[in-house]
Amino acid sequence: MPTNRLEAFSDGVLAIIITIMVLELKVPAGHDLSDLVHTTGVGLLTYLLTFIYVGIYWNNHHHMFHLVRQVSGGLLWANLALLFCLSLFPLTTAWVDDSRFEPIPVVVYGLNLLSAAIAYWVLQTVIIRQQGPKSLLREAVGADIKGKVSPALYLTGILSALLIDRSGPIGVGLAEACYVAVAIMWVVPDRRIDRVVREHKPAG
pLDDT value at position 136? Predict the structure, then answer.
């Protein structure tokens, strides 16, 4: 089975996720900039962070499927698992916003990020195993340092919000810093897959 339908479906789901998130933003009650900051300020920040995450997953998903020629049943389910985790982003983002960064919503948001990272790793692993010992995707990801560092940062953030300064801002601040750090790490363009695609592109 070719990949077109899977990619089109995934693109549609990600577009809906972004649409739902922006609809969750509160319209300012007044007409001044201060009304925007007071009513929507926190929501804009959480929306921006999650939007970046959705963009990162869309970008990497798009590039990864340049190296996939056929879709198996296992790959379809692994992709659905990733989309399920990503589809929870609007809920967990809105909870963080509505709670004004209370520890438990921040922890749940981190768990959502961690689950999406694990689901992406599973999808990547399924593709590599399907491609066999000469897998182009395995060649492209290499040691996958960023893929290994990201879950560690998510866990650090989750534990910080749970265990550090539960009644104050320090633990939550550390958690959010970890989540932002992962986003910054992945938003930097990753040329690994592009390089492998160019190297194995048929001549002519």
Answer: 82
